[in-house]
Give the backbone structure.
Amino acid sequence: MLNEGEVVLRLVMSVVLGGFIGLERERLLVGYRTYSAGFRTHILVAVGAAVCMIVSEGLHYQFKGDAARVAAQVVSGIGFLGAGAIMREGLLIRGLTTAASLWVVASVGLACGAGYYLPAALGTLLVLFTLVLLGTFEDLVRGKGRYDLLSMVVSDMPEQVRLIRAYLEEQVGEVNKIEVSKMHEAGRVLLEVYMKIPPEKKMIDILHYLTTLPGVYRVEHRT
């Protein structure tokens, strides 16, 4: 049976490692952009998975049952939580990376709960490498790393797009590209604007003004 010190160590490790991955997701909360799973959610998933693994191991020693039975349900059960992080906006699907990070952090939590600290720590480092460094590389390959992206849900009216474009060109200069996608909601479109915002401009002021325009329902920003 596990002693109390070992139980505490496993749970603390799950909090620390899950928190590192959650912080990477949390850093994307820029401007008015919101993610459905951030710092606290990833910690909760990691701790929950660790508790399941510890309980599963304890039941095995106490009742001679299958030590993997409880923990195995975490792998399938986390799929329902991950599905909640995936959102469809018009032709675009967002949140797949966050859903994948939830699945991975559950695996890290299971490893912590089982006492496999090296795989848990190394797995966390590889996840952070993938999300941070490879994410930047992916943006550069796609040619979007050089631009800021404004994602807006607006009324499906041509004059609305012209108004927004005119304001942005007045504030920041040249707009590189505008993509318009239909959404499921009637009368709304997803507007994605790629541009380079000068350092002297305050993004929060631009976002605040855009949200005050009639027919603008949501504004998000990322680099």
